[in-house]
Amino acid sequence: MTLAISNASIGSPTARKSPPFPPELWLTILNLATDVPGLLSCDGPTPSDLPRPLVKEHEHRLLKESLITKRNIILVCRTWHALATRFLYRSVLVTRPATLSSLLVALDSRTSGETLSAYAGWWTRRLDVLIQDDRCEASDYALLANIIRRFPNLSIVNLSMPMLPNNDSWLRQLPESVVTALAESCGSSLRVFDCSESILRPCREDLMKLIAAAPNLSVLRCPICSPSARDKSPSARLDVPVMTKLQSVSLMSVFLRDYLPDDRDANHFPALRKLTYDCIPPPFLDHTWKHFVRLSCANVTTVHLDYSLLADSLQKELDLLSECCLSLNDLVVYIRSWTEIKPNLILPPSVSYLGLHSKLCKAPAFHFKQLFAALRTISGSKLKIVRLLHADAVEDLRENYRSLLESELADSTSCITFRIEDNEGRLLLI
To answer: What is the pTM of this model?
Structure first.
């Protein structure tokens, strides 16, 4: 359809004014323009089987791109500024301590009216504090605690912060004021707490208080608690709360005691469906870990295993999962190199999807040969898909070892009954 406007009608006093655009429509348009799909999902904007550091790197790039769009929108006019403030503050990303003071001032200013929703922090649902290289003072963490208290509806918190000056490198404790602010201000709305990549982390007592104040917590990634002086008094040890909504947890087997309840035969993770854990030297205590997995992970459907022990011990992990995780469907294993996938591995019988990620992306040819040799002898009665997760490794294989890939897959046709896929879910050989 073409709209023709005559010159005479433009300046005519009888020309009709366009009706005002309803603010509800502007809000819909601005929401679509600034939205990052999955931003407020417990799985993040891009659910992925990749290791968390790679996933976070991608998420933060998306958040920064969205922030640029939001800042441009609020500068268009006063109307857009007023309407778009809720979208500007829906997610807050902090990367430098120098921005904390100005952020606190902005959060204390009203946009309009006298209601709580007139404060920008009312709209915030996600907070990412990603401070890596800058020096953080105690005053910076005090500011951060005050900022968190301006977010009564916060549901997703990702923390990655450097050490305090002159702090004991062994302690590395996240200041209590920050954890207390989370518990007191947004505990009831908190669904995701992730400090897995942070140098500073809460001590066990502070973490237990946060968990107790967050009954709707669905994802917990805090595999290591900071030691504290209070750990020396077993009588003062807080019990692990029963987490009825917790579906995903990240643990480190050698630090399991932080999550063990006083009653070792009680399951405090009844809703758990996803387990992520690291196996690091020295080997964990088999009995304690096995008892925990059997008790708390019977209904787990997904396991992400970051494996750093000797390759020959991987089968022991698989046997443990076979025995204790009878509902396991998706298994993802992060290894140092493809050579750690040994021949004749026996997967848990319920597993239909196996994701593999090698930390050595540019591998020599014999690494890939050993991988395919191992896949030809792997046992899994329900296995349907094996996926190589790292895009760089797939690209390297296709571009530099094409003939090897073709010959290995040709040799595997008669003995492999599952698909071998690239990182995007396509057949590896296309």
So the answer is: 0.85
